[in-house]
């Protein structure tokens, strides 16, 4: 049975890095909100600060998730999924095609997030995120509860053990 892995966490918590590792380990398709932005930004002339355009990109991601789940493929969705209602919408999408869901919450201390953000200003490994958006995300975060089939990943978590546990529990 296919699984939709729903990543949950604020900017610089490690979602993209962990998403790639989960997708590789489980043989899942990786769908990324940021990836969709870079794929569509020139074609659609997207303004990075326009909320309506991010909603449109979210719709494109949901379509791609649904396409893959319908084909019986598991999907890792790399986005923030900060609020319960966001995760519930994704669960409903998965249920509509008989797929299961697992929420991966990245419980990364703010000090580590800030350190990664500062390092990114130098390395430019990823696009910059304005501080106001990071602050807004922290304020909006609704930490997933155990009834959401949540797996918590912390910076000190043993990655190999986590991936094995994630892959074996359905």
Can you characterise this structure?
This protein is α/β, with parallel strands linked by helices and 170 residues long. The protein has one domain: P-loop containing nucleotide triphosphate hydrolases (Rossmann fold, 3-Layer(aba) Sandwich). It is built from seven helices and five strands. It has helices at 15-26, 33-44, 51-70, 84-95, 110-123, 131-140, 159-168, and strands at 3-8, 29-32, 75-78, 100-106, 150-153. Strands 2-3-1-4-5 form a five-stranded parallel β-sheet, with helices on both faces. Helix 2 (33-44) packs across helix 3 (51-70). The mean pLDDT is 85.
Q: Which terms summarize this structure?
A:
single chain; 5-stranded parallel beta sheet; alpha/beta; 53% helix; Rossmann fold; 15% strand; 7 helices; 170 residues; 5 strands
Structural class: alpha/beta
Order of adjacent strands in the largest pleated sheet: 2-3-1-4-5
Whole-number tally of structural domains = 1
By CATH, the superfamily comes out as P-loop containing nucleotide triphosphate hydrolases
- Round the Cα radius of gyration to an integer and report it: 15 Å
